[in-house]
Amino acid sequence: MHTECIGEQLSFQGLEQRRVVADFSAGAVTSDGGGLLLREVAQGSRIVGRFAACFEDHRDPEAIEHTVAELVAQRVHAVALGYEDVNDHDELRRDPLLATLVGKADPAGERRRRARDRGKPLAGKSTINRLELADPERAAGHRYHRIVCDPEAVDQFFVTAFLDSHTRPPTTIVLDLDATDDPVHGGQEGRFFHAYYGGYCYMPLYIFAGDHLLLARLRPSNIDAAAGAVEELDRIIGQIRARWPQVRIIVRGDSGFARNELMTWCEDHHVDYVLGLAKNARLCAAIQRQLGKSQRRYHQTKKASRRYRDFHYRTRSSWDRTRRVVGKAEYLAKGPNPRFVVTSLSSSEYGAQALYEELYCARGDMENRIKEQQLDLFADRTSTSWMRSNQLRLWFSSVAYVLLSALRRVALQGTELAHAQCATIRNKLLKIGALVSVTVRRVWIRFASGYPYKALFAEILANVRRAYAPIRV
Question: Are 68 and 417 in contact (CB under 8 A)?
């Protein structure tokens, strides 16, 4: 019997009389076999290709082996599969499965120009790093950093992806705005200390329509939460109405966006809004009677009690007009908990309770989408020295989210994963062990026989194929 070399073996606890040993000699085995689902969605929706079209390549076409489209696809797919660092690509570049997702015609890397690159079909960390660090003003003449991203094209891409995901215009859409913290731990450009978050951070602005990401704008944290929101809404809503002129739009956000400039813009452009409103003495006095009733009710039942009051309100100096405000007079075990929203919506359309509980509180789902990006897709991996490259990293994360969100929307509806978060989708559908074999006519992906969701995977693939039929293979 042939004796295996034990030089690279790893030893584990034994199994009765048997030793348990392991090594990394299995060959072309991947842990990301389910990534083929992402490839189907990427090809059917053209999400990754359209994002790649937002880059300009100043390299010599005769001297390149990795196109911009391939580099962008490699970075986006890797993030979606859970590989957040550029350094990961020095090993990932050998993966024929990832090369298949990217669209490499030579997924085994056998035809690379240099002998040292053969067997490595994809770009390494240095090439990916150059993609991220290019300076637009110097790219055309730079020796290394010659691929640049067009920010305006990227902004349009996210809105276009949202528009194209609908077969017919909706009657109403709600645009959710939110600002969050993105902690930084170095000397990054644009870093500032934010007292509320208790550390140095960026403060990106997000805009979602349901689970569709429309904007991910990296900003320094020494600004008001609503800074730039009017300009972003003007651009996004203009692009939406150019395609859907009759759609009704409601803007929703927390109290950080209840600014006179934003509300006035909405009123002037026939856009409705419902925004949180920070409490003050005058507002609390307006619902004092309702708070008293809620308090008495709480002491009788020992359960949270709440009442609502609908009234009109104007600040003493910051607002230029009177607006409708709904106050929630809530009493909890910890005491009174008054809350307020300001809105352009009429009481005949939304009563006070429905406005607060059904419309305003639904914005909490957007916070879950931001958490998905930051926790599951590494949107906070903004560790380069410059804001422009950190913005690009945020965009790579955002496109990975758009890709996974498209998979969830078109293929998971009606399944047990219909409302699964990105991490769950990755763990149950994408992280499948598989043996990869590349022949002249086929790329064979042989999934692990013990994969527990075989029937679900086949159902989801069928859903993808129906959604994007016909897909060329």
Answer: no
Burial string for 339-352 (b: 16+ CB within 10 Å, else e) reads: bbbbbbbeeeebeb
Residue 445 near residue 436, CB atoms below 8 Å: yes
Task: For residue 2, tell me if it sits in a domain.
Answer: no
Q: Identify the domain boundary among 326, 356, 376.
A: 376
- Structure tokens that stand for 435 in this block: 């043996």
Element (H, E) at 437: strand 434-438
Domain boundary among 354, 376, 398: 376
Do residues 345 and 409 share a domain?
no
Q: Are 158 and 398 in contact (CB under 8 A)?
A: yes
Cis geometry, peptide bond prior to residue 338 (ω within 30 degrees of 0): no
Partner residues linked to 443 by β-bridges: 438
Count how many residues are written for the chain: 473
- pLDDT tens string, the chain, 473 residues long: the values are 344 444 578 989 999 999 998 888 888 899 999 999 999 999 999 999 999 999 999 998 888 999 999 999 999 999 999 999 999 999 999 999 999 999 999 999 999 999 999 999 999 999 999 888 888 888 888 877 889 999 999 999 999 999 999 999 999 999 999 999 999 999 999 999 999 999 999 999 999 999 999 999 999 999 999 999 999 999 999 999 999 999 999 999 999 999 999 999 999 999 999 999 999 999 999 999 999 999 999 999 999 999 999 999 999 999 999 999 999 999 999 999 999 999 999 999 999 999 999 999 999 898 899 999 999 999 999 999 999 999 999 999 999 999 999 999 999 999 999 999 999 999 999 999 999 999 989 999 999 999 999 999 999 999 999 999 864 44
9 belongs to a structural domain: no
Give alpha helix (H) positions in 312-374. Answer: 352-354, 364-371
* Helices then strands, each counted (H, E), the chain: 16, 19
CB-CB contact of 313 with 321 (8 Å): no
Residue 82's domain comprises 29-149+388-467
Which residues face 341 on adjacent strands?
276, 326
Per the CB < 8 A criterion, the answer to whether 77 and 97 are in contact is no
**Angstrom distance (rounded) from CA 418 to CA 435:** 28
